[in-house]
Amino acid sequence: MATLQERLDEAEAAFHDLLIGKAVAEVRDANGETIRYTQTNRAALSAYIADLKRQLGTTSVSGPLRPFFT
C-alpha cells in the first residue's frame, strides 16, 4: 500500500501531466482503485492533492499574509 507521500507525489505528477497538455492522467487512490482525471475534472484532482497535503500537515497558508504591528 502506498504511503500518503507516495500518493501525493503521484497525484502531483498527474496534475502536471494535465497542465502540460496530456489529455488523461491516472492516479491510484487509498483503496487501490485507479481514478482517471481529464481536463474537465482537473479541479477534483487539485482538491485531492490539497486533501493529501492536509493529511500530511504540509498545507500552505491560504490568502495574503497581513502584517502584525505591536
Automatic annotation (TrEMBL):
Q: Which GO terms of type biological process are on file? A: viral life cycle
Q: Which InterPro entries would you find in this protein's record? A: GpW (IPR004174), GpW_sf (IPR036626)
Q: Which Pfam families match?
A: gpW
Q: What domain of life does the UniProt record list for this protein's source?
A: Bacteria
**UniProt protein name:** Phage tail protein
Q: Which organism is it from?
A: Novosphingobium aureum
